[in-house]
Prior knowledge:
Helix content is 50%, strand content 12%. By secondary structure, it is α/β, with parallel strands linked by helices. A 5-stranded parallel β-sheet has the order 2-1-3-4-5, sandwiched between helices. Mean pLDDT is 86; it is low at 148-154.
Amino acid sequence: xxxxxxxxxxxxxxxxxxxxxxxxxxxxxxxxxxxxxxxxxxxxxxxxxxxxxxxxxxxxxxxxxxxxxxxxxxxxxxxxxxxxxxxxxxxxxxxxxxxxxxxxxxxxxxxxxxxxxxxxxxxxxxxxxxxxxxxxxxxxxxxxxxxxxxxxxxxxxxxxxxxxxxxxxxxxxxxxxxxxxxxxxxxxxxxxxxxxxxxxxxxxxxxxxxxxxxxxxxxxxx
Length: 222
């Protein structure tokens, strides 16, 4: 359900292909806890429509006429900071992924995503999560593991580094806890410290900051 009072999650779809919008409309409308609040075919159209429809989650294509999805994401979040943008695109190149996340996108999915996973991702994003396609998570990790010449953040403890590695791998707190053999509450406590030390506000920003600092190699036990 939506963020407040158990209301349906309001969704805005931004894609320049009518057939894609129609397919998403058909599928989303049968979900009892989701409400398709609007559709836009461009970034320029999406901004005023978002003000009007007040979506909880925006499914944003990247390749749009005029303003691209990255810029549209940046402007939309400046306009409505509480909104959650999930990129839904055919393109998973590393540069596109990082640009979208740096613009503030909460998640990044490829259009090959299973429909049930897409619905789960919308719910996850509305609840404050950061859904990523597995391919996208792998690209972020590959970027992290390349030598960057940057100094790692010495302020993080070894355990905090392991928890951070779990976050960048797209694991939930429960999965990180199982991997490290610690309690889920302990993972949450470590994440609170990680966010504070890195000066970030959430999981997506922490993963991006980890990329910038070259924090890799301390990884959680396999």
